Amino acid sequence: MTQTFYITTPIYYVNAEPHIGTSYTTILADTLARYHRLLGRSTFFLTGTDEHGDKIARSAAATGETPQAFVDRISGKFRQLWPQLHVHPDRFIRTTDADHIRTVHHILRKVYDAGDIYFGEYGGLYCLGCERFYTEKELVDGLCPDHKVAPEFIEEKNYFFRMSKYQEWLGNYIADHPDFIRPERYRNEVLGFLREPLEDLCISRPTSRLSWGVPIPFDDKYVTYVWFDALINYLTGIGYPDESNWQDYWARTEHLIGKDILKPHGVYWPTMLKAAGIPPFAHLTVHGYWNFEDTKISKSHGTPLAPLPLVKVFGTDALRYFLMRDMVVGLDAKFSIASLANRLNSDLANDFGNLLSRLTKLTSAHFDGKAPEAPEKPGPLMTQIASLTERIPEELSEFRLHNVIEEILQLIRATNRYLEANAPWKLVKENRARAGEIIYEGLETLRIAAVFLSPVMPEKTTELLTRLGQPIEEFRFEPHARWGRLRAGTRITEGPPLFPRIPEDELAELLPEIIGKTRKPKETKKVSAEDKKMDIIGIEDFSRVQLKVARVLSAEPIPKANKLLKLRVEIGDETRQIIAGIAKHYSPESLIGKTVIVVTNLKPVKLRGEESQGMLLAASSDDELSLITIDKEIPSGASIS
Ligand code: ME8
Atom 21, ligand 1: which residue's CA is nearest? Predict the structure, then answer.
């Protein structure tokens, strides 16, 4: 029987738009799904959106939409984004889908009939961001460790899942199955939760307080929401209970999550399954956070980087490559535009893309654009390929994707070195046949490297393989990784650079634009008290920024930087140079004599080799930009308070 593989991502809350954090998990799942398909496994990849609960109902109220219209709109943004990141799930599930609601009912009934759901009263500390109760011990300085807000005390009559009953079973199960929760640090964290008495799980809300949930089939005055609803999506997605083959996939489930939702997945979910008489999932794999400027990328922490502006500058495959290469699954990673650009310029343009242009040029120049004859015995690169071919499946099953990628890159670098050492462009004059063999080895190694990288960069590798005259249908790891598949005489086509480089100085110019666009625009509509708490800053934070009135003395364009102007401004007794990205909106002459507002205590930066000693304040909206000025005569140097 064909082996199966079932991979899932968390279903994302629709109270915010997709960002780099949620894109990461989804791209990782897509990449792994592609690797498993390449390995010949029957693969099912599920992602989707989590649409019920207080938080969503409040976000809908804040925009003035009905909850249904709101969830349709935001869920649509996720669904439309994924193909633009080359992500193609087998199903995009929504917790508002009719079959999902049926599955939730089915499981609620089963667990209720077994006596593991009861009605009771409970008061506890509830974090709205996490949609769960916290114990005092789990809080840090009285705040939710993830959202950094004080939880609300909530007390009411509700339905409870008898989770405590399964505490001992779960502890034993985890101890007997070391692969159940990975990497080990998270397995230990779950074992840590289980050292404290496990409380029962509140799974309902009275409809008088929240109606945006799944109706409880045995009490119409209550709904279930978030975790008891959301986790079950993983079963609905593969057709539980009606489809005949759901168990084939279930036995190979790989749940992929970030560390923020470890407890619901590591504790609630296996105990829910146990109570419903369903075998546990196979694996839960937990990754860390992407941080940007030392803060977690997220909707509530103020730095939600949107993926599309990045795609526009760097391309989808380069973004996928960077995300897959620069995070070690299990640890946190740093997102920076500079490291993304560096991966593009060095690994992709210099190493990978350059190997392709070298080889296609050599083939055109000396072999009439056709693959030369293979050597009788494969050379040294073949040994490296053989060991990589053997290790890839194992490395992948351990989620060491960063290693797999690095080793493929090492193979590519070794091929570049092999060409340099043997210089076929010189050798061709004395020994054409031998030069041809070396070029063949280069082409064949590049072909195999592209097959190995195809799950990470599906678009660019398809383009590369097309240039090497390779049909891409029936893509399978084993036959495609076999040495010698490239036939002599195959047409090899030259083309433009596969990964155009982004020079550093151009990047400096693009940077404010990318970051500006990737930042979430400030919410202008009504926001909930909870959200407000997160946005508010103290006067002490604001007063750290020094703003002063300045007068523009001179302004001139900067050669080859069509967005920048170099200004000299007078701030009281001082004169400073400021580089401002306003050339599209102001001519240099129109600025001379203008009164502007400058941030004076910013660290100086170099833009296009010119130092900028401050920043002008401006208002902008879409394509419009207007400098901020003052409406009375006031001397330059005056402070803004
Ligand atoms: O928790 N770095 O949804 P959510 C890495 N609906 N990954 C990140 C990240 C970051 N900075 N930020 C977010 C929910 N993620 C529930 C899940 S599942 C039955 C219900 C990713 O929209 C990561 O996978 O808050 C994290 O676990 C998930 O987004 C949280 O998404």
Answer: 22
